[in-house]
Amino acid sequence: MSGLTLVGDVGGTNCRFALAERNPQGTIELHHSERFAVGDFSSFHDAVKGYLDAQKLTPKKAAFAFAGPKFGDEIRMTNVDWVVSESSLNEKFGFDDVVVLNDFVAMANGATVIPDDGFDVLLPGKVNYNKPIAVMGPGTGLGISCIIPGQPLRIVPTEGGHTAFAPQNAFEQEILTHQLGLMPYVSAESLISGPGIPRLYRAICAIRDEVATLSKPEEIVAAAQADPKSAARLTVVTFCNLLGGFAGNAALTMGASGGVVLGGGVSRHIAPFFDQSEFKERFKSRGRGSFFVKDVPVRLITIDFVALYGAAAMVLN
């Protein structure tokens, strides 16, 4: 068991660990996956120690994906006060080989190895890895990276979720005005993220002069499914609209003519509402830039643990 590689995917809310290996067919297998609340640990080292103690293992290789940018050998998480470096992990746990990387680098790397049946098609066409591809998705934040063609493929992480929220109609302008009364800068991820769903819901309730009775994203999505005339339904449909517009902007900004891939649990959770929304129209409606995105395929990752597979592929030969 010590020959297995420790992998982790660490977001602003949860961290997930597993043990990875390549099977004789050359594909990656994950074992003993466990999820922990980030808030239960004072440091990432404590979380790793807790998992390894429970597994009674001392792996020699590790790869960890984090929601945050990498500087040198160090990751600074965006929504959690954790700073993690490869050198500190080596010193603490005695790894022979350890890699820390941005979570959407891992997500993008994982997207290149999962089979076609691991995706749903939102806009038709085959993803072309000979052209740039944007990989993005809402979670605790709004992650986005770009796959650059070549041998090997290169993945560029970005902090594009922190770009300014851009309303496209009078209703969305009202949402922006409401949010500006609560925060000095409204980023895209302020609204297009898991925590953004309750923010969007409260803004819509205020605009409709209704009392906001729901507080959790999952409550709002459930209420949206139950009542098509509710503020919750309008919230989730609006969320899909905003996500479509942001994805279209990403395709233009990154020159992602090869495709756009959506990942993360939030995207899968709201997937039943894509067809009820203007997601596709918003993606394609780019003014004079519409010619560029009109044939760009958009896919939704439907399988779990893609970032773990992507992290594992970084260290498994």
Automatic annotation (TrEMBL):
Organism superkingdom: Bacteria
One example GO MF annotation: glucokinase activity
Alphabetical UniProt keywords: Kinase, Transferase
Pfam families on file: Glucokinase (PF02685)
GO CC, alphabetical: cytosol
Cross-referenced PANTHER family: GLUCOKINASE (PTHR47690:SF1)
Family: Belongs to the bacterial glucokinase family.
Protein name listed in UniProt: Glucokinase
This protein's record includes keyword Magnesium: no
One GO term (biological process): glycolytic process
Source organism: Litorimonas taeanensis
